[in-house]
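User: Quick sanity check before I run a bigger batch. Here is a single chain. Can you write out its predicted 3D structure?
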Amino acid sequence: MMIEIKGVGIKNKGAHLLLLAILQEFSKRGVKADFCAAPGFGMDVFAATGHGMYLKANFKSKRLPWDKILRLVGKKERRDYGLVMDDEIDLVLDASGFAYGDFWGHKKPLDRLANVIKGRVRPEVKTILLPQALGPFTDSKVKHAFQKVVDKVDLIFARDEQSLAHLTENFKGKAQFLLGPDFTNLLEVEGEEEYPEGNIGIIPNYKMSGEGYENYVGFLKDAISHLIQKLNMRPYFLIHEGEKDQAIAEKLNQDLQTELPIIVEEDPLAIKRRIKACEMVIVSRFHGLVSALCQGVPVVSTSWSHKYRMLLKDYQQEEALLDINNYQQGALEALMESKLAIPKKEYYQQQQALIAAQKERATKMWDKVFELIGG
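Assistant: Done. Predicted structure follows.
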């Protein structure tokens, strides 16, 4: 079985975690399969081969008929060079996380799911959108584009109730709509007792700048100052995605009395391991938030999308979300103090039932997927 995974790559550590979680699940269930992904989004020949994957032949040229050219080469030879054609795919899994809705525009679903929408995969091939945040769909062009997806795919998992409502209120078609949580919570890591850089992870997100850069920077400064001066903690920057997030950390360091360490890990599991070791994280990245919540680590979260609020609701931690444009410094300080007042092991015990429930939901989601594909 050849499975195409969409929306994954290695530059975005959340997308990398999703990829690893998919590969783990097929291995754990003993389902033999080969995997491929289109180049882009941090996925190239080196990334693909490093994960035992193929690249989908996705050449585009107005001058050269690449599809016809590649068919002059035998399937075995294409495989030897790590290439897979659309009509060789047996299953499509879309793990985009958050890619469809007004924020992303109407071209995103048409581009990412083009081979499904345009019938370049065989008619019997199943297409499943794995749990992701979706919507809103108030833009008529966006809604029209996503209707083409709904008409072609078999199953769409919404990651939260608000995303599910966006689906059921706007679309009818072939696809079945179900709820399913983010499934990177099924990736387990061994925790370290302590990292020399510090015990509080600050995970920035450049997208928060769209909510007001000065407000976001001010929020992080307030948090860092109180952690160091009043709570005697050792915060450090933990980069969850790329140069733009790192640039925020570097800019903040220019304004801080004492520069904080900036840690960049290429392995997303190493990031998750560091999060597990933290006493608390100040987090603006969604999968950094997932990694904290599913490992029983206290959080203070910011948000630029409904997906953060809905995830925190799953773990009964809605009070941990602060609006960077409308917060009181005293409220931020009180929130951090309350999170750190409970011993970490005790906090984990309080959260254990919720953590187990979310993992069970993720497992049942995969049960539904394998039931549909007959694996």
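The first strand starts at residue 2 and ends at 6.

User: Great, the batch can go ahead then.
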